[in-house]
Amino acid sequence: MNAEDFLHQGINKNSQGDYQGAIASFNSALQINPDFAEVYQNRGNAYFAMGDYQNAIADYHSSIKINPALAAQINFDMSIAYYNQGLTLCEQGDYPKAIENFNSALELNPNFAEAYSNRGNVRYQLKDYQSAIADQNLALRLDPNFIDAYHNRGNARYALADYQEAIADYNRALTINPNYATAYYNRGLVYTSLKEYEKAIADFNQTLKLHPDDVQAYYNRGLVRAILGDYQAAIEDYDHALEQNPYLVLVYGFRANARSQLGDFQGALADCNELLQLHPHLAEGYCDRATAHRSLGNYQEAIADYDRALEINSNLIEAYYGRAIARDALEDFAGAIVDNQKAIQLNPNFSQAYCNLGNARRNLGDERGAIEDYNSALQLNADLIEAYYNRGSTYFVLEDYERAIADYTKAIKINPSTAAFYSDRANARYALEDFQGAIEDYDRAITIDKSVAENWYNRGRSYSLLGDFQQALLDLNQALDLEPHFASAYIVRADIRHNLGDIESAIADFQKAADLYQQEGNTQYYQQIIDIIRKLQQ
Fold first, then answer.
1. Which of 197, 442, 479, 513 has the fewest CB atoms in 10 Å of its CB?
2. What is the pTM of this model?
3. How many domains would you assign to the chain?
4. CB 359 within 8 A of CB 386
């Protein structure tokens, strides 16, 4: 057989899909005639069909070198070979070489819209978003209905936080193909960034309608539902995601957080354990498990996990902050101070850490230092209600009642539905002998929460000091209904009854108070009350 015969044999095998046999025939032809341009061309076609684009390109170049007249015929095939080789390199993560191949494809075929679009995708992977957009623009100029180019340009615009233009691109893609699930998904991500959560959920719903097994759509919908406070629905989404892929480390963390919000701290612990089994060196996983332990009152276990987190990442602010809370609960206030200071060192704008630092200082008796910390917290966040409330409580301890009232008032302005803010402001007004103002605040506190015996007791004392003994008795009766072991309430009621001339009832109340003090082992108060009873009985 001569070279022509082997060429035709190879072409026949190529047409039958026997690419290896075809290459063998072409090799035989080239052994006879090494300058047979058509053989290189057809062997290049066989390599191309096998996905061996590198050898295909080499053969196409050899063919054109021997016979330049074949260039027009071969260049189109060679541009596709460069394009496909670019796609392969992209999948392998070799982005610079992928771009080189797309460039070569475009030199051979400047009207190759797919090559522009995929070069744009590679540039997107390299975070060169402006160049990515430019390539998608070139693709769309060649093909105004190129749906993937709209979608991919939307991705680049989303990465640049150009959210409205990104949405416009996803909309164009969906106008062309209303069943383009990925466009719904990515538009959902943009709506999430814009805090348009209902629209985001609608897009994730549509994604899942088209692709019921889309794991990312499930857990991103779960994240949005968690933001909206619908933690049970979020957990259901995380469940679906983990059923399909039980190795999604972060989703265990998301579900743990949702369970914690619902008070299911044991479930949160279980999720953190799963997470850490999959990724035993994830500092955030130990931090989340520590938070679950802390919520269960397992403070030593929490501290151990915060310690592990910090061994892995010594700059994990959340671990210092959480460990400070656990140490505070164990009354290790000095340790809490150190951890809060470290959190502040890592993030000087961490207002809550300043507030907690103030709490620890106050617990150690450093009220002035605590006030400085609360001041720092409020300079960073003028709406930090805890800082106003705690600073007010600190001023109260220092008997600076006017400032205490001012801070409680600011806390009330931010959140007018917390009973403790009113009752503590009432206590400060009581200390200033503004009994009417105190009664008004106790009224508000009781309206919000009728179950706090101390508020009824304090309002009763205030009425008593204003001479309204009947109203005082009603309040003290209510306090004792709520808390039958409230010795101080019995004593105040006994004083009122004594003043009203009801000696027998007064003695009964004093006796009840004495019995309670005796049960508590408070011999000093017990003896004082017994002495009062003896005087009344004389």
1. 197
2. 0.77
3. 1
4. no
